[in-house]
Amino acid sequence: MGSYPGCDILQVFEHIVWMGDLNYRLDFPAEIFGEGANAKTPPKELFAHIKELVARNQTSVLLAQDQLRAACARNESFVGFSEAEITFVPTFKVMRQEGVEYTTQRAPAYCDRILWKSVSYLKVDCSEFWSGASVSSSDHKPVGARITLELRPARPRWWPQIFSKIAVSQRRQRIAVIALIQNDFVPHLRAWKLELKTMRGVNLKAADVSGMSDPFVCFQGDAVMKSKSTEVCSRK
Questions:
Q1: Number of domains in the chain
Q2: Which of 114, 119, 139, 214 has its CA 20 to 30 A from that of 22?
Q3: How many CB atoms lie within 10 A of CB 143?
Q4: Residues in contact with 193: Cβ distance below 8 Å, sequence separation at least 6, in sequence order
Q5: pLDDT of the chain along its 236 residues, tens only?
């Protein structure tokens, strides 16, 4: 890996695998199980309900209440990350013994997760995703996955000469940069950053009724985690 000052760590690598105890829980409706439904210690009725779903292996019903999946759907967490289908029962909070037996101190939940994020032109295959029910050393059952990651193609020898033209601020070479991106040359880079040295606006139209709004530039795209805007330029 090279050094890319100023680049978000999520934009530096072709593949990122994020795993561990992420501590997301299951949210159950208070109108059914009362105000204490999502307290640290669940009501007896809720605990019995979850245990029944686990006994029936109704993982889809449990995951419908999963906080992590809900946060991802709202683009509030792990934006652009993927996760394999979960077919095992919740891994937290279990007794330290073989098999899966939950304690009443906490509601069972899928705290232990494995997610990944890769650039779009490289393939990723998660052929297995499992939980180790026989491990008895923790109040979490460990999870594991078999993930196959496609490697980035070797960078062509001629690339540095072409890439050096990006830094030259002449119109014809800026057009060439756009052509490189459109022709999928840029994905061969390990990582890249587009830096704007100067920017000028002419005859900007106001965005509000008063005509006194201050202009700024907003950047959006697949490579940007969230919309990013420049500082506001005063119209004084």
A1: 2
A2: 119
A3: 20
A4: 4, 6, 7, 11
A5: 444 556 677 777 889 999 999 999 999 888 778 777 777 888 899 999 999 999 999 999 999 999 999 999 999 999 989 999 999 999 999 999 999 999 999 999 999 999 999 888 889 999 999 999 999 999 999 999 999 999 877 765 555 444 444 443 344 434 344 434 444 444 555 555 667 777 777 776 665 556 566 677 777 665 565 667 777 776 55
Give the Cβ contact number of residue 114 at 10 Å.
Answer: 18
Same domain, 18 and 66: yes
> Is the residue at 179 inside a domain?
yes
38 DSSP assignment: G
Q: Are residues 81 and 171 in the same domain?
A: no
Q: What is the CATH number of the domain that holds 78?
A: 3.60.10.10
pTM of the full structure:
0.65
Q: Note whether 115 and 18 are same-domain residues.
A: yes
In a domain? residue 215 = yes
207 and 107, same structural domain? no
Within the chain, where are the H helices?
Answer: 30-33, 44-55, 59-63, 67-73, 159-163, 171-182
pLDDT in tens, 41-70: 888 999 999 999 999 999 999 999 999 999
Q: Determine the Cα–Cα distance for residues 20 and 130; give it in Å rounded to an integer.
A: 14
One domain for residues 166 and 95: no
Range of the domain at 37: 9-149
Residue 20 neighbours by CB under 8 Å, 6+ apart: 112, 113
